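#structure-requests
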Amino acid sequence: MFNIISTIGRSIGQLLSKFYPQLILLLLPIIFFYPVFLGYVLFPGAAFINEFYPGKDLPQDNSAIAWSTEKFYGSDPMTAHYPWKLIGIEMMKKGEWPLWNPYSFAGSPLLANNQSALLDPLNVFYLMFDFVTAWNINIILQVVLTGLFCYYLLRDYKLTKFSALWGGMIYAWNGYLANYLHIQVIGHVLIWLPLSILLLRKINREKKLVYFWLLVFSITSIFLSGYLQTTAYALVIIFIFCLICCRTRFFTMVLAFIVSLGLSSVQILPTLEFINKSQRSAAFFYDTFSFLAQPGQLIRFLMPRFFGHPNSENWWGGMLQRDHSYIGVLGIIFALVGIYFVLKNKEFKFWLFLLIFFIIFTVESPLTKFIYDLPIPLLNSVTPSRSLGMVVFPLSILSALGIEKFILAKHKVGKITLIALISLLIIALISALCALFNFPTAQNIQQIIKQSFFYLMVLCLLFSSLVVIYFKKILPTFLILGLLFSLQTTDLLKENKFFTRLFTSSQQLYPQTELTDFLIKHSESRFLSLDLWLLIPNSFLPYHLYTITSYDALHLQNSAQFVEAIFKNIPQTYLLDPRSIRFSNLNTNLASMLNIRFFLSLSPLAKTDFNFIGKIGSAFIYENPGVLPYGFLVDNFQITDEKQQLSAMFDPTTDFSKSVFLYEKPLVSISPDNKGSVNLLQRGYRSVEWSVFTPEPQILFIAETYDDGWQAYIDGEKTKVYQANGVFQAVAVPSGKHTVKLFYNPGSFQIGLFISGTTLLLLFLVIALRPDFFQKNHTHR
């Protein structure tokens, strides 16, 4: 019996010795995110309950509502990514392509909005599990897979298990990934970057078909993961790495890229078309330079709380998201050691080059401003601070190299480590002085000393003590390394927990309230919130409520400009905020045409033509008595250009129930003074159907955003969709009783679907008929 137990113990010990890095990278996220196993959701829902209405009207029993009551500065998961994903997956489960979002902006493309990431391969979990479970899985997988793939890449560089684990931990738990963890689209791009580099290295050495197909899958996943800017960075890194380090296999990489491009066309083509139609292509986009990191802000790589912390409500350093890329003090120290050795190691020089390149791209300088002023398409519409995600990747690799040299070359590296530590303190001092030069207050200085310098000194003291003990051989090597790893891991988790440990009770995720129940009951018409803090943008999507406002990185430019003109009550097309559309003035006539029935406000309206019908919670509710239906017949039209049309539409004498403004004459003759009837038969996600009766030809106006992807059919025969009343839709209906159906199916999606389907079919044929194609045609040269 004792022998059996002893044998089992030895076997377990051997397994742990062999696989301890993988176990740590796998189990640590599971332990850290343990509340998900208690029914909680990895989602910053506390903000919805504690800061916004109508959630704020709920009983404030935080123990029942949210795991975390901390303030969350950054509402994108709540106002964008979760709602988009929710309605998109809902459509897919019903067998529909998620092409159109009918609830926001009076209708807007959904799949073409790449940040919805509805074709991300990891979305398979949404088809296997309920939405909340799949959401949690996808967030935890970001940490698990980034760590594991970085670990295996570093092992491929012949680093020891411990050094590879060190780099994998930094890449998985760095502040940048933690900051965007709930958004997912950025993290899901970063997952596949180290795997792609690893596969390129393997392809460069071996002729195994499996590596090629895995590379195709990895690059395709990068294309489909959702965040266009990070995707572009990742693809550039892969391309340059192959060009510099894997030249003999460059053709293989190009082939993999072409295949991936073909597979991803169903997403890429609609997205490119949407960008071309969107506000991102406009010359008036926001100031890119305001999103550059200041040199002094790099101090947060060493002292993450130098500028305070939102959790303590003492933040004074600008936008939090663009600067938080903390990799740990020990991580930086060993990265500096790695930089010293990289100069003598050809394989790692690429990562030093990459680090310098993206720092230049991120930090404000004359060179950076020159780069972003270049007439390169979309360059002036990116957010430069997103480059920090690419800085973290080479830092993780260089830090792993640094601790590798620390382990293997003790005496020489001891001096280098000491120099790195001194360099770190000098850098910290210089950066602090730069930051203080811009933000000098007595309160800030006191806060910095208390929260940052003291913490940095303690970490450096502990590290120095461990280094001395290590070189004096006072304790076993494995114990010192374990203490170093524990110190680094604790440091990372401590600083990043604010972003990674935001949980919401699944029962209180977009909770039903008296106000939302009222709006759901009247959801055949649109509502409009007049306050930013009341039903914040896109929070209405889970309730399937229609409105004309929203928040989105991409939306149709003509629609956004037109609606903004309506809201400002000025007959000009311009756009102040390129990402969101909000209401500031009430134009009763236009609001009626837009099918807006209810107006919500947190305070009484001083002067209005709307009827006050009551107060629900903190919301005052007003009804528009003159609201027009979502679709209605008119018997008169006027042909105008854009300027004339806007002026006419802002004319208070215009009767939208009788006349429509078009840019071109209908193909059928419209008879005036005729009355018909319209009955809405079905209103789906990307289709709408009416039963129409009219004695004479008339025009059916639809208060849905116009896009050339909309197709109209009358009794099954295709007809033209006209752009009407600025940016909405109209169909000329002949006399008689007809069924009119509109269906959204853009050409870019059809072409992309054909290319992707053809590419997939060809791949299956190659695998089935020529399984040795790769080996025969792509050998080493």
